[in-house]
Design a protein that fits this description.
binds benzoic acid, 5-stranded mixed sheet, single chain, 14 helices, 326 residues, 18% strand, alpha/beta
C-alpha cells in the first residue's frame, strides 16, 4: 500500500477508535443480596456478558450486599442518575408505584412455574412500561426469588401462635398489611440485617424464601419452618431513566437483551432450585409445618379488599393468574 491509499484507511480506523472510545462506559449496578445469592450471580453474569459482547468497551461493576445503600436509597440514586442500574425487589418498586403491590396478592401463584408465567404475562410487561413516567427508571424485565415461607423460633401449630410475634418482613406495604391482618407484629428490616436480628431476639420469626433460609443459615436460628408458599417475590432489573436517555439505540438494545436473558435465567433457576433448598433445610431436622390458604383464615380475602383500593390492576392480576394456572 502506498501512502495515498493508506491515508483513508488510517482515518477510518481512527474514526472507529474515537467512536468506540466516546461510547465506552463503566456502569454501576447495585443490589442488596450477598455474593452467594442467585440475584448477585445473575448481575455478575450480565456484567460478564456485556463486557464480552462489547470487547470490554462497556463494563459493569456490581455492588452487592447493600454496599450502595438500601433499596430505597438505590432507587433514589437511579432517579437522579447517580446509579446506573440495579436489581431490586418489586417490593421496593411497589412502595413508589402501588399497582405493583398486586404481585403480592396472597396465593396468587400456586407454584414457581406459575409465578414465572405470571411474570411473562402482557400485564406484567405493560406495568414495566409505566416505570419511566412514575418512578424515573426503565424496567428491563423480571427475575424472582422463591415463594415466601415463615421461619419461627419455637413451635407453631396454628396462625394463632403467630399473634403478637415480632416477625421480620421486607419493608413494603403489601406484606405489612398481610401480617397486620394476621395479628402478628410485623417488623420491617432489609435482608442483610435478618440473621443478627433473629439471633439476638430482636425478632422471633421471619418472612423469607428458601434460598436465604438455607444459604445464609437462618435455619440455625429457627425451630419451625411454616411452608405456606403464601406469596411470590418478583425482582426487577432497572436502568436509570436519565442514563437510558443518553445511551445510543444500539447500547439500549444490547443492554436490554443481555440483562433480560440473565433475569430469565434467574427465574428458571428458582423453578428448579427452590424445592431443593427447602429439602436441604428439612434435612437439618428443622420442624416443617405444611399449610395452605386455610391456615390464614380470612386474611387473604381481607388483603384483597385493601389492595383492590391501592392497586388498579389487582383484579386483572387475579385473572392473569387464573388464566395461566394449570
Ligand atoms: C427479602 O427481603 O426477604 C429478600 C430480598 C431479596 C432477595 C430475597 C429475599
Amino acid at each position: 500500500m502506498n501512502r495515498l491509499t493508506s491515508l483513508p484507511a488510517a482515518i477510518a480506523a481512527l474514526t472507529m477508535l474515537l467512536a468506540s472510545t466516546a461510547s465506552a462506559a463503566d456502569f454501576r449496578l447495585g443490589l442488596i443480596t450477598p455474593p452467594q445469592h442467585i440475584w448477585t450471580e445473575a448481575a455478575e453474569g450480565f456484567a460478564a456478558d456485556l463486557a464480552e459482547a462489547t470487547d470490554g468497551a462497556h463494563t459493569v461493576t456490581t455492588f452487592p450486599a447493600q454496599q450502595l445503600g438500601n433499596e430505597a436509597e438505590m432507587m433514589q440514586q437511579l432517579q437522579t442518575g447517580a446509579l446506573d442500574m440495579a436489581f431490586l425487589t418489586v417490593a421496593e418498586v411497589s412502595n413508589r408505584v402501588p399497582d405493583f403491590g398486586a404481585f403480592y396478592a396472597p396465593f396468587l401463584a400456586t407454584d414457581l412455574d406459575h409465578a414465572g408465567r405470571i411474570l411473562q404475562s402482557d400485564l406484567a410487561a405493560r406495568m414495566l412500561e409505566d416505570l419511566p413516567g412514575k418512578a424515573g427508571v426503565v424496567g428491563i424485565g423480571y427475575g424472582m426469588a422463591g415463594l415466601r415461607q415463615i421461619a419461627t423460633k419455637g413451635e407453631v401449630s396454628s396462625a394463632a401462635d403467630l399473634k403478637g410475634k415480632k416477625l421480620r418482613i421486607t419493608p413494603f406495604k403489601p406484606i405489612l398489611d398481610f401480617y397486620n391482618l394476621l395479628g402478628a407484629a410485623p417488623t420491617p428490616m432489609p435482608l442483610p440485617a435478618v440473621y443478627d436480628a433473629l439471633a439476638n431476639g430482636q425478632v422471633n420469626a421471619i418472612d423469607m424464601d428458601a434460598e436465604p433460609i438455607w444459604k445464609l443459615k437462618y435455619y440455625e436460628q429457627a425451630d419451625t419452618v411454616i411452608v405456606s408458599n403464601h406469596m411470590m417475590f418478583p425482582m426487577v432489573g432497572l436502568v436509570s431513566a436519565k442514563v437510558w436517555k443518553v445511551m445510543s439505540e444500539q447500547d439500549r438494545a444490547l443492554i436490554a437483551k443481555l440483562m433480560k436473558a440473565r433475569l430469565d435465567e434467574c427465574v428458571a433457576t428458582y423453578i428448579v432450585k427452590d424445592a431443593e433448598w427447602l429439602e436441604q433445610v428439612r434435612g437439618t431436622g428443622t420442624a416443617f409445618l405444611e399449610v395452605g390458604p386455610e391456615f390464614f383464615g380470612d386474611v387473604p380475602a381481607e388483603w384483597d379488599k385493601i389492595w383492590s383500593q391501592q392497586s388498579a390492576v389487582l383484579g386483572e392480576m387475579r385473572d392473569v393468574a387464573a388464566d395461566t394456572a394449570e
